[in-house]
């Protein structure tokens, strides 16, 4: 029998890559992509698969409890891969409440609908919650986040994701709802909305606009190519152990300023500009409040247990990402008009 898989947030950045992978790789599954299409959701991301017979798009809000229950009862999803979320830290500092609604209450609505549908009889069922390494808070100059690092979220975004992780785990204990959780580091790649660092800077370099670097630029993040994240999600969904958490990371730490300089170098070459042209756009701006100094993931568990590791180097992934944005200028133009301009002015020109 066809396995019915609900993927939430499938019109967003990571979700669109996961939807495409599952639709193409598993013709026997039916993939339902549920997304309300916020500013970050874009069906253009899925143009190439929208006609496939094993794909259905459902426009719905995970905050709409009744609608979510009705959808679960009519489609009878066997599994959920939950990515829908408000995902941008800066926006969570401006408006924390929407993060509480979507990331916490929205997740609860899905958990409840799944539980009611299967009446606590979960044979061959799975709820997969996609989360972030930001739930662990910040590291000093040394050390790595492991699956047993205590949660210590510092932003409204990470607090909302931490809370949803706890609810998923609690439903596993209280109602025996079968779950897996993954906590992943910063993703980059095609289709990422240009509010996040790499596409924001690619867009600004194309337009000769300033590159706003927070604080002294010494913040450190681990970066993972989005297709490697999607491959990890596929593995964990099929082979991850029930009630387990897996950390996913790129073994690829970069100080923001070094990353920006590498990006500038690659952009100068690709745009045939003199060396140093893009770097001259770097402007240091007032720091983000509560900015975490360093995130770094120990991905040994998923590497050893599920034999997963990243398939591309950062230099390769970054180069492919830049090529994608340069070849999809219309996509970029579409998402950076209108409301994006207001957001940008508020965020960087205050
Ligand atoms: P994104 O912002 O690009 O996409 C989020 C998607 O969710 C959008 O399509 C949006 O329309 C949809 N959505 C938002 N609110 C909704 C609602 N109320 N109902 C239905 N759909 C809704 O996010 P992303 O970067 O692709 O992240 C996806 C998931 O992965 C999130 O849960 C995020 O916390 C997690 N994550 C992201 C990263 C990263 O680096 N981007 C890293 C680790 C984990």
TrEMBL record:
Residues 6-320 form the NAD(P)-binding domain. Keywords: Lyase, NAD. Belongs to the NAD(P)-dependent epimerase/dehydratase family. dTDP-glucose dehydratase subfamily. Its EC number is 4.2.1.46. It comes from the Bacteria. Its cofactor is NAD(+). It is an enzyme of class 4 (lyase). This is dTDP-glucose 4,6-dehydratase. The keyword Thylakoid does not apply. GO terms for molecular function: dTDP-glucose 4,6-dehydratase activity. It comes from Winogradskyella aurantia.
């Amino acid at each position: 029998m066809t396995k019915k898989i609900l993927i939430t947030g499938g019109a967003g950045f990571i979700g669109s890559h996961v939807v495409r992978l599952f639709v193409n790789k598993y013709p026997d599954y039916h993939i339902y992509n549920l997304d309300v299409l916020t500013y970050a959701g874009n069906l253009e991301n899925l143009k190439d698969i929208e006609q496939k017979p094993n794909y259905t798009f459902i426009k719905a809000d995970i905050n709409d409890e009744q609608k979510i229950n009705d959808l679960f009862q009519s489609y009878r999803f066997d599994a959920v891969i939950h990515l829908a979320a408000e995902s941008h830290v800066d926006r969570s500092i401006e408006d924390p409440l929407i993060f509480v609604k979507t990331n916490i209450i929205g997740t609860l609505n899905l958990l409840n609908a799944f539980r009611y549908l299967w009446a606590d009889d979960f044979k061959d069922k799975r709820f997969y919650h996609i989360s972030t390494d930001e739930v662990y808070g910040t590291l000093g100059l040394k050390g790595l986040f492991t699956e047993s690092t205590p949660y210590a979220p510092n932003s409204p975004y990470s607090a909302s994701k931490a809370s949803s992780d706890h609810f998923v785990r609690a439903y596993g204990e209280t109602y025996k709802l079968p779950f897996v959780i993954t906590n992943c580091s910063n993703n980059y790649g095609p289709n990422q909305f240009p509010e996040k660092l790499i596409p924001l800077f690619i867009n600004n370099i194309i337009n000769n606009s300033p590159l706003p670097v927070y604080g002294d630029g010494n913040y450190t993040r681990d970066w993972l190519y989005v297709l490697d994240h999607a491959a990890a999600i596929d593995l964990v969904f099929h082979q991850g152990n029930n009630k387990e958490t897996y950390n996913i990371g790129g073994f690829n730490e970069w100080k923001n300023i070094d990353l920006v300089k590498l990006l500038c170098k690659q952009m100068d070459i690709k745009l045939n500009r003199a060396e140093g042209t893009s770097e001259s756009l770097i402007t240091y701006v007032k720091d983000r409040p509560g900015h975490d100094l360093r995130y770094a993931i120990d991905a040994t568990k998923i590497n050893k247990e599920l034999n997963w590791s990243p398939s591309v180097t950062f230099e390769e992934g970054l180069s492919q990402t830049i090529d994608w944005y340069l070849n999809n200028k219309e996509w970029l133009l579409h998402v950076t008009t209108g409301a994006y301009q207001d957001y940008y002015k508020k965020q960087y020109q205050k």
